Structures are given as structure tokens and as C-alpha cells.
Amino acid sequence: MLDSQDDFVQLKATQILTVLLSSESSPIQSQYLLPFLNTLSAFVTHPLPHKRDIAVQCLETVLPRSEVRRAVWENATLVGGLVDILKHNPGPQMCYQIGFCFWLLTFEQEVAEQLNKKFDIIPLLTDVAKAAVKEKVVRVIVATFRNMVSKAPSDNLPAMLVAQLLPFVKNLSTRKWTDEDIVEDVQYLRDELNARFESLTTYDEYSSELLSGHLSWTPVHESELFWKENATKLNDKDYDQLKTLVGLLKESNDPVVLAVAAHDIGQYVKHYERGKKYAS
């Protein structure tokens, strides 16, 4: 019935199966779970809004199960579909529901470690939270960030600092909230981000920004002293950071990122006499 050409039958079958799977007392076997998730993948990327709505509703219901979370994480189309919906400015309820899905997903260690690396989710969720008019949207995103920090701090704190999450959570900490959980989560994030920020050197800040791929005209890029002291550090680990800069020049479509990357490579060549050989 999941393969039915009749939309009504297919949608109802999906909803019924969602109820059955969510209430199953034993782990769900992959022979039942994978076809179900493939159907949700097709729904979540479908141009019709009601199919996307059904997909997200069904995911919310089954993601409390660990085996489902792991299987969803293996389905890049499904996770990418959720990200894509968020990028198109959905309404508050959809923002909350997708945020809830990501919150559940980040209870898995691998997801907490890899979610931002694969889907650049931190700046996106930060923007959604900043624009949110509903407390529950902010609450679920802050809770998601807490999961990511508590389970994988080194994977996520640098990107959060680059996304300017610290000033945002400082602002959140001054607001009045009806939910005590959000107060605790905001405080946790503020403390963790503050500690990380205070321990950073200038080059750590640069490295975090470079790792995130979101280069912008922060003061470090235009500091002659910074480049004089640090240009050769791009050579470390087999020129890893230099390769990252070159990769951004080749792959990014963002004019600011391209301009900053080109500038940084120019500074590298200027302050490292053999730089032209390695940057070409």
C-alpha cells in the first residue's frame, strides 16, 4: 500500500504504519522500516505541501525510537529534505516540528558529531531561532544545540562561535520564558560557548571560521600582523588549511566567501616566500 498510485491510499497507509511502528514493543526490523522511510523520503522532498507535512508528522512520531533515528540518519535524502524545508522559511509550526526531529536525532552520538559537518545545520538553526516568534521554536532549537554540545563539543562549538551563537544566547538569557527548560539550556550553552571563546587564540578563531566554510570580513583577515605571524601555519598537517582555502575558491558560490578566501591566499603568498608554489 505504500507503493499505491492513489495518493489517499498511500498517505493513509503511511499514517497507519506510523502508529503501528511507534507502538511496536520490540525493535523494528529493517525489512519493514526501510520501505517506510523511503516513502517518507519521497514525501519530504515532494512539491506538494501536504505530503511534506505528513512526512514530518510521521517522523516526529517514530524518531523517539533509537533504531529509527539510526536508520533515518543513514537516509541522506530524508535528512537533507528536512534541511531544505527549513531553508525555505516555513511557518512556525513546521519550524518547530522539524526542530523537534533534529532534537530527537541528536540523541545519537554519530548524529551529534556529524550533523553540522554534513548539512551545515548550525547557522541555519541559528537563523531560524533568531527569526522565531514562537517560544517553542526557540526552545527546541536551543535543546538541539545543547545535545550537540554535550555529546560532541569539539565538533560543534567552533561552528557555533562562527555562527555568532554566543551573543544570541546572551540575548536569550535576558528574556522572560515560561518554560524552565529553556532557561537551563540557554545557561548551559552560554557557559560552554563562553568557556570556549575565552580559551581561543586569534588563530583558533581563524581556524574555526575556516573549518566552518563561512568566511567573512572579520578583523583577522585584514590584519597584516596576523598574517606575518601565522601564514606558515597554513602549511601544517600537510597543508590542510591551505587546501581548505583552495577548496572554497573552487566550490563556494558565495561571493563573500570567495573574496575572503582569495584575499587569504594572497596574504599567504605575500608572507611565505614559497607560498606561490603551494597555492597554485
UniProtKB/TrEMBL annotation:
Keyword terms: Hydrogen ion transport, Ion transport, Transport
GO molecular function: proton-transporting ATPase activity, rotational mechanism
UniProt-recorded name of the protein: ATPase V1 complex subunit H C-terminal domain-containing protein
UniProt GO cellular component terms: fungal-type vacuole membrane; vacuolar proton-transporting V-type ATPase, V1 domain
Biological source species: Hermanssonia centrifuga
Recorded family membership: Belongs to the V-ATPase H subunit family.
Domain ATPase V1 complex subunit H C-terminal: 200-278
Domain of life: Eukaryota
